[in-house]
Amino acid sequence: MAAQLRELISSGSPFEATAGYSRAVVDGNWIFVSGTTGYDYETMTMPESVEEQTHNCFRNITTVLKQANASLTDVVRVRYIIADSSYADVVFPIFGQYFGDIRPAATLIVAGLLKPEMKVEIEVTARRRS
Q: Which helix (H) or strand (E) segment is 71 a member of?
């Protein structure tokens, strides 16, 4: 059996090289997507609302999974980080829009994020099916 290659996926951000990480790592059928914030890469801005940031997190994660020949339906684990516990009731229905039928194992953490404008960060692990 041939060894499966490890593939690094980059968003193109110079911060990845500076901080020493990849947007995602594909190892065999496993895909590990780094914590993803609500940055809007089309407008190069961070939206103000936690709702729009959350939707952007999922858009960005979907883009990376597509690069790895996967989709949200392949996600088996998700970690949500929100900057304020008051956001929970706002973001839960949005999480459900994307994962309601997929139902990955999940954890929600309330913690400070890197920059004050960041309100949500989402990290996923996916496994491609043959």
A: none
C-beta contacts of 53-60 below 8 A and 24+ residues apart: 53/118, 53/119, 53/120, 54/91, 54/94, 54/95, 54/120, 54/122, 55/94, 57/120, 57/121, 57/122, 58/94, 58/98, 58/122, 60/11, 60/36
- 66-88 burial: b if 16+ Cβ within 10 Å, else e: ebbebebebbeebbbbbbeeebe
Domains of the chain: 6-127 (3.30.1330.40)
Q: With beta carbons less than 8 A apart as the criterion, state whether 24 and 64 touch.
A: yes
Query: In whole angstroms, how far apart are CA 24 and each of 19, 46, 87, 94, 115?
Result: 14, 21, 26, 23, 21
SS3 48: coil
Q: Is the pTM of this model over 0.85?
A: yes
Kindly report, residue by residue over 75-108, the tens digit of the pLDDT. Answer: 999 999 999 999 999 999 999 999 999 999 999 9
